[in-house]
Design goal:
Blueprint (H helix, E strand, L loop, with lengths): L10 H4 L6 H8 L4 E5 L5 E3 H19 L7 E5 L4 H13 L2 E4 L6 H11 L3 E4 L4 H5 L9 E4 L7 H6 L14 E6 L9 E5 H15 L6 E4 L6 H13 L3 E4 L5 H9 L7 E4 L1 H9 L13 E4 L6 H9 L4 E7 L3 E5 L4 H6 L6 E2 L4 E5 L12 E6 L11 H7 E2 L2 E10 L5 E6 L4 E3 L2 E3 L1 H9 L4 E11 L3 E10 L7 H9 L10 E4 L13 H16 L1
Parallel strand pairs: 1-10, 3-4, 3-5, 5-6, 9-10, 9-11, 11-12, 12-13, 24-25
Antiparallel strand pairs: 1-2, 7-8, 13-14, 14-15, 16-17, 17-19, 18-19, 19-20, 21-22, 23-24
Helix pairs in contact: 2-3, 3-4, 8-9
């Protein structure tokens, strides 16, 4: 069941126009550059983008016929201008855009398609083999490749007359974003037209986005950071979006260093920020034109923050999710970044936040509790998931499942996932704290800690460690490093070396995968 928020402004109250923001920008700044595509060098003005979206909307209406209202249109493709064209065209045509994670295999995509039942699937040729193996998922689902030529997606857009925006209520879904699955079970987050609008407004405030902004996006459009925070916000505010189909450190650094391109905003997950600094092409000068380098999706190490600050770059940390968009962000201010290490900042303007304890009441300043959110950017629920929706949304509040605290200066910190916390010897252990201590070891490149059952203590921690190239720290050495920084009950009982930490596209650790690895290893030892 989809739940709506009490007190949320209706579409009439908000004064939202029924069409998308591109139509407005095409009216007021028709010749301003809207998009530039790194892979092809193609670019579109707002007028050209508006016409292309209109033709695509006409194509969708012609293809979907009487079934256009609320029909799902899925896309399995890397970032491109036409990915955004299809997203906005779905909104104009009254359909629902479903960007699929192209990192998933057919077995992982199959339940998502079964859940959203798209009438149309558009895909890159790169993923043709995966799509072919999904052909029997829904015999009625039409499939179109983005390939050039008469039957390709681009040609079909060009062959259609522009379609007029259809009148759809602002509280109706326009996007389904399937969660990255840190628990192993992706859910389709319902993003309404109103949600998308206010999520973009929130990021425009915290990111200081405006008509003069030029944002580079190589984070995938199947995630809220790429599709909503970066792409939609930049276009809604009349800036220029530089679309990259993939992240490669050297190419991204070249784009950031290009003074003619004049990129002002770049959003990364911590692994990307780390990869940029580790690339031979890295230089502080390449990033000197940035207003800020935004980071989210996973915890930041203090060493990484300080390394960028030393180069004069504000590495601005934040916190958000598919269900709410941008939630918290450190102000774009060197002093704020320096004085609040590890913080995720202050609340976005159009958002209410509570920190709720185990008894269901708000906790005091500095105390740990679950973050609850409310506001017009917060999603109404999950597609076809009434029980999950009822569990996550309580009287208009979204229960994030993340533990955090509010400090005296009003800044917030995320302590850990509620489900990731474990109890060892009667004491609460937050893996994020243990991971931060481990990450400060110079030989450790990446780390994740999970709680596992223990006959003596109830639960204990297992640390999965990725060493830096050429490093040779032993488990005993790392254990000693922990002993100097953590109480005994917080120290991991086991330290296991691993080639890479399994992560989602947004950089979050898939701890259910690590727990399964531990279970499999335990069974093998018992056998």
């Amino acid at each position: 069941m989809v739940r709506s928020f009490s007190g949320m402004a209706s579409s009439a109250d908000c004064g939202l126009v029924k069409d998308d923001p591109i139509l407005y920008r095409a009216r007021v700044a028709p010749d301003r550059r809207a998009l530039f595509e790194v892979a092809t060098g193609r670019q579109l003005t707002y007028t050209e983008l508006d016409v292309r979206i209109a033709r695509c909307a006409g194509f969708l209406r012609a293809m979907l016929g009487a079934q256009w209202d609320g029909a799902r249109v899925a896309m399995l493709a890397r970032n491109s201008m036409d990915s955004l064209v299809l997203a906005f065209a779905c909104q104009r045509a009254g359909a629902i855009y479903v960007p699929l994670n192209w990192r998933l295999n057919a077995a992982e995509l199959r339940p998502i398609l079964a859940d959203c039942t798209p009438a149309l699937l558009v895909h890159d040729e790169e993923f043709s083999a995966v799509v072919a193996s999904l052909a029997d998922a829904d015999p009625e689902m039409a499939v179109i490749a983005t390939a050039d030529g008469p039957g390709g997606f681009a040609a079909r857009i060009e062959a259609n007359l522009p379609g007029e925006p259809v009148p759809v209520d602002a509280d109706q879904p326009c996007v389904l974003l399937y969660t990255s699955g840190t628990t192993g079970q992706p859910k389709g987050v319902i993003i309404t037209r109103s949600n998308a609008f206010f999520a973009a407004v929130n990021f425009s405030f915290v990111g200081e986005i405006g008509p003069g902004s030029v944002a580079l996006c190589d984070l995938p459009f199947f995630h809220t950071i790429g599709l909503i925070a970066v792409a939609r916000t930049t276009l809604m505010l009349g800036g220029t979006l530089v679309v990259s189909d993939r992240f490669t450190p050297a190419r991204t650094l070249a784009a950031l260093a290009d003074r003619q391109r004049a990129i002002t905003h770049y959003f990364a997950v911590p692994q990307i920020a780390l990869a940029l600094r580790g690339d031979p092409a890295y230089s502080a000068a390449a990033l000197s034109g940035l207003h800020a380098l935004f980071v989210g999706g996973a915890p930041l190490t203090q060493a990484l923050i300080e390394s960028y600050l030393g180069d004069g770059v504000a590495l601005v940390n934040g916190y958000g999710m598919s269900e709410a968009g941008t939630v918290l962000h450190v102000p774009i201010d060197r002093r704020a970044v320096q004085d609040n290490p590890g913080s995720v900042g202050l609340p976005a303007p159009l958002l209410d936040i509570r920190i709720v304890g185990e008894e269901g009441s708000d906790v005091g300043e500095g105390e740990i509790g679950e973050l609850w959110l409310r506001g017009p950017a917060v999603a109404p629920g999950y597609w076809n998931k009434p029980e999950e929706t009822a569990a996550a949304f309580t009287e208009g509040w979204y229960r994030t499942g993340d533990l955090g605290r509010r400090e005296a200066n009003g800044f917030y910190r995320i302590v850990d996932r509620l489900k990731d916390m474990y109890i060892s010897g009667g004491e609460n252990v937050y893996p994020a704290e243990v991971e931060a201590a481990l990450a400060s070891h110079p030989d450790i490149l990446d780390v994740a800690v999970v709680g596992i059952p223990d006959t003596r203590w109830g639960e204990c921690g297992v640390a999965y460690v990725v060493q830096r190239p050429g490093a040779a720290a032993t488990g005993e050495e790392i254990a000693g490093h922990c002993a100097a920084r953590l109480a005994a009950f917080k120290r991991p009982a086991r330290i296991l070396f691993i080639e890479s930490i399994p992560r989602t596209a947004s950089g979050k650790v898939q701890k259910h995968v690590l727990r399964r690895l531990h279970s499999d290893e335990t069974l093998q030892r018992q056998a």
